[in-house]
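Students often ask why we bother predicting the structure of a whole assembly rather than each chain alone. The short answer is interfaces. A chain on its own may look different once its partners are present, and contacts between molecules only exist in the joint model. In this exercise we take two input lines together and write out one structure for the complete complex. Read the inputs first and try to guess which parts will touch.
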Amino acid sequence: MYFVLVSVLACLASCHCFIERDEKNENHCGLLQHWIESSLVSMEIIKKGFHREVETTVELSPDVHSGVRVLLLHRWPRGVYVDPYQLASLSDLSDWKIILDSTIDLEGPAHKTTGFVTFVYPTPDGPTPTLLKVTIPIHGRYHEPSFVAETFTSVEIEPPELLLWTEKCIPLNNVEPHEVMEAPCTHHNSSSCQWVKQQHQQKVKLYSSYSGVDYRVPLDASSQFTVIFSPYFCSA
Amino acid sequence: MERLITKLTEKHVLFTASFVIRLALVAYGDYQDKTMVVKYTDIDYHVFTDAARCITEGQSPYNRSTYRYTPLLAWLLTPNIYLSMVFGKILFIVCDVLSGLLIYKILLLKGLGTEAALRVCSLWLLNPLPIGVSSRGNAESILAALVLGTLLCMEARHLMWGAILYGLSVHMKIYPVTYALPIALSLRTTETRSEDKKGMKSLMRFIRSFFNQELFLFASVAAGVLCMLTALFCYMYGWEFLHETYLYHLTRRDIRHNFSPYFYMLYLTADSGWSQWLGLAAFLPQLILLLVASWAFHSDLSFCCFLHTAIFVSFNKVCTSQYFLWYLCLLPLVIPHLSLSLKQGVGLLILWFAGQGLWLGPAYFLEFEGYNTFLWIWLAGLLFLIINSFILIQIVSHYKPTQTPQRLKVE
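Now the answer. The structure tokens for the assembled complex follow.
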């Protein structure tokens, strides 16, 4: 009899614990959803020519807890590249860390390479401030020469996706309409976590520098292709 | 005695001063790298250091992307990781000053007086271009020292050492392989009796003149050194070594802008079926000119090698300012034989710099301002080629192959 009573009490206690944890979980997941909705991501491209810098600013909600991790996911087009060696020397001087999803061909032209993805951790260790700024140097690739009189081509750079993670909202549920996405937990890339991804449409602002967020790369204008080519052979 | 002491002091002053200047710049470069956004150290130095780091971790140096040199260089720079990052730069500036010493010794052997030889080699030792290049961490001075060492040994008839140094320099960079023909022509048996005009017989005699002991010794030692090093690194690093160190440079078709006017043609035709043939065809002007230069000037090996290198660099499919050092280190050997006046010499120098400046302008606007200046860069490249050809023609037409070279004209 007592045994039954004790086991029922134990069951009730653990159920209560689970419910409490679930409630806390739901609270934190709700908070996470609120934070991701109220965060603002803006991007600016500075400098000119083939060597530019992409400046991303993230404004988090002021009530963000310190245990929240931030991840910026850039999907880069094939018209640009980052130099992993330059990034390695920069990461010694800056507080953000970056990992790449593939090896970068530093010399190939645009039409012979592919786009790539970078994971940027603005504050890998320590408390999360509400204003984060990350500046990534990028370089333009040579593009295929054009056979019509185009002297420039555009490289479209999308703003990064903002992802948030907190250990207090595991597993992630009830974060609609935001997506849940797998990504490395930290820049050490030793494990994978589930992150909440911000929905783009509502909260992203794009600031254009004088040349626009579109990055214009000079292209040789080879509508004179045959004109340039033949004289070379005649004189050689 | 007093004059001798003065001369010794002068020599010591010159060499010490040139080393101290380079050392000071290395120290300044370290400071600039730490405090300013624009770095003093060349990107190549970081490539070498990263490759050396790969070696210290037991990996291939070719794991470092864009490392396209002999593994020997990365091995030489492993103290960069174990001791200090600055080791490599110290090595390069020592080789730079050593090159100056080798120039001095060659000039003395050729019959120039001490004072004149010192004045001529100060053109290298106090020249801002090699000073800047080696203090920034480029490895060109190692090759300059090897090539000058080869020429010194040839001049002093120490053929075995010359062959070893020659094999080593060809291993480090491909371009000294062009010196093989003038070296062979200078080592062959020269005819003492009057030549028979009959075509076949004189051709046979010509071919037979190449089969002598000296040439055989030189060829076998040089080839032996080269083959040994190639075999060793092939064994250690495999196909990657052959590809990155040699094949890449032979087949490279750099579409990005550089001094060579070929870049534009290669960019436009990169995806066409003709690009391979065009790449090969671009070797023809170089080859023809090198053959002609070898035949005409093989009696003065230093002058011939200078011409070879200048032709090679100017007509190459890719040309960057680092390559200029390859022939600039040989220019002091040539200067005493030139009957150019100081005014003419300075005029040619200004023309050479002007050609580079005219290229650097549109290149800057393309790379850092984003303007489409491809056509201007190409035209500037063509103009630079014309200027280089003009300068070479002037040098050749003012060359006096005398036994005792003229003293440097100072006005």
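Check your guess against this: The longest helix of chain B spans residues 2-35.
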